[in-house]
Design goal:
mainly beta; repeat; WD repeat domain-containing protein 83; 313 residues; 4-stranded antiparallel sheet; cytoplasm
């Protein structure tokens, strides 16, 4: 994608609305797919909540987890989502009825991450037990179809591509499994890996690690392409993401500030340093999938804040 000469779009920093109904930290939040302005949030309070981001209103609550919710993945058609956390089972939900359609058991510890593949036929989950399990949602059998056991510590993050799975672990490795060739490449990052987000073309990967750095890696060979720093992230999972058009990198940090960098030269965008917008660590940052002027931040302060570009008078 060619970028305009003036560089990336400025970050949406005008507070549109605050979503505040969780009791305790919000660990994860995800936009619905496509143009819709709906957000799913998961919290320490064991619930998943669906919000209308335009109106700032809560639509419904999904309650079945017995422990904290740590991860959410929305299917391509927004008809279902998966969630995981302290329960050791992955929950698959029907959005319309707010009931679980499947509970997938097999992990021996809390499940930090769950992700659908493109058509929601396969679900991958990564756990404190150091394994990744793949589940075939079209099969009647509720057993995992494959277990990836290469990690030596908790699997915190993963992404399911069309022909590959990329995982990040506290053991400091990003592992890319080529499902067609049956090959594995492990790239040692030196610090615990808490988030991996690929570009849409699957050529490059944004890797967040607990040394207050975010790195852009070449997915073909593991080569370092760029390094983004300035933010504070040494203890908690703070998920970084790409800004609009993948022209920038955005991350909320442990001080409650939202940083942004130019993807190409890794320079921090103004304001630098950014203002504090949450009272506690920002756990998750996500830009709207299609709109250039909207993103949100979720925080341990119990809120999710939706940010837009300030209206020009």
């Amino acid at each position: 994608m060619t970028q305009p000469a003036r560089g990336p779009e400025p970050l949406p920093r005008h507070l549109h609305t605050t979503l505040a109904a969780h009791k305790g930290p919000v660990n994860v939040a995800r936009y619905a797919k496509g143009a819709a302005k709906y957000i799913l949030t998961g919290g320490q309070d064991r619930t998943v909540k669906l919000w209308n981001a335009n109106l700032g209103t809560q639509v419904k609550t999904f309650a079945a987890h017995g422990y904290e919710v740590l991860s959410i993945s929305v299917s391509h058609d927004n008809a279902q989502f998966a969630s995981s956390g302290g329960d050791r089972s992955v929950f698959v939900w029907d959005v319309a009825t707010a009931v679980t359609t499947r509970r997938l058991a097999g992990h021996l510890g809390k499940i930090h991450v769950v992700e659908f593949n493109d058509d929601a036929s396969v679900l991958a989950s990564g756990s404190f037990d150091s394994s990744v399990r793949l589940w075939d949602l079209r099969a009647q059998n509720r057993q995992a179809i494959q277990v990836l056991e290469e990690a030596r510590d908790a699997v915190q993050t993963l992404h399911v591509g069309s022909t590959y799975i990329t995982t990040g672990s506290l053991d400091g490795h990003v592992r890319t499994y080529d499902l067609r060739k049956g090959e594995l490449r492990a790239d040692y990052m030196g610090y615990p890996v808490t988030a991996v987000v690929p570009t849409q073309d699957s050529q490059t990967l944004l890797v967040t690690t607990l040394d207050s750095h975010i790195r852009l890696m070449d997915m073909a060979n593991g080569k370092l392409l760029n390094d983004f720093a300035g933010h504070t992230n040494a203890e908690y999972r703070c998920r970084a993401c790409f800004g609009h058009g993948e022209a920038s990198v955005v991350c909320g940090d442990e001080k409650g500030t939202v940083w942004a960098w130019d993807l190409l030269d890794a320079k921090a965008l103004q304001p630098n340093p950014p203002p504090q917008v949450h009272n506690k660590v920002i756990t998750w940052t996500e830009h709207h999938p299609t709109e250039k002027g909207e993103m949100f931040t979720a925080s341990a302060d119990g809120t999710v804040k939706v940010w837009r570009q300030a209206e020009v008078p």
